[in-house]
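Q: Could you write out the predicted structure for this multi-component system? I'm mainly interested in how the pieces pack against one another.
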Amino acid sequence: MSVSEWQGDGEAMCPHRLILEHVTSRWGVLVLIQLLDRPYRFSELRRAIGRVSEKMLTQTLQTLERDGLVHRDAKPVIPPRVDYSLTELGREAAEQVRALASWTEQRMDDVLGARRAYDEARDARSRAS
Amino acid sequence: MSVSEWQGDGEAMCPHRLILEHVTSRWGVLVLIQLLDRPYRFSELRRAIGRVSEKMLTQTLQTLERDGLVHRDAKPVIPPRVDYSLTELGREAAEQVRALASWTEQRMDDVLGARRAYDEARDARSRAS
DNA sequence: CGGTATCCAAAAGGATACTG
DNA sequence: CAGTATCCTTTTGGATACCG
């Protein structure tokens, strides 16, 4: 499968790439993984993820809901209560994303080591010049 | 301007999320998947991905190289020739990313259907009000 | 509580010119 | 060819105020 096969036909980006970008977006990744645990209320989700603004969380949830990955259950009570959960489609995506996140966690030390080596090599080069 | 400056990522965020963001970044995803195929030269990679500026491709490759995911092989010839390939670490990451991309492709129709349903429901609601 | 609307700052990204 | 450097535009994201 070639990357260029996903590209748009001139103006818009191809749908495949767009969906992938929703799923791999900064907050999309975190929301999907968090919801694998269990359903969350809006504020609860915000606290669980941490350092996400109301605006970005709203935007992310709406995008994921529109793509059919997240189910939004707004209960008509006072005060309002809205629960978010994964659809079956969302669970599939979330599991892929979680696999990637787990890999990242397992291999973090290797990456950090590679970074140190890279930076040291760069510093040595700049001293030599 | 130093590399670490424009690469940003000053140690504000936890390393785990940071690595994940490099791997899932817009161009990072495309580069990793493309390099799963075989090593590529810079311009060759640029053509294969398409619609990526020189600047962004350079930036992405440097970030992935620093994280130890991509190997850069600059041959001291005229004209310059630089080959990029995946490291073992990079191959592991790329395979996870490719799995996610494949899922997206397989499930694209479901997502597009969900979107149509969402938009129609929203339009119906706005007409009713 | 769970949003929306608005404004503003910061970061990403593109175009162009230039270099070894 | 494979980049850097610079300038500029676009997008992203946060802060704040307000609403049902």
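A: Regarding packing and overall arrangement: Chain B is about 65% helix and 10% strand.
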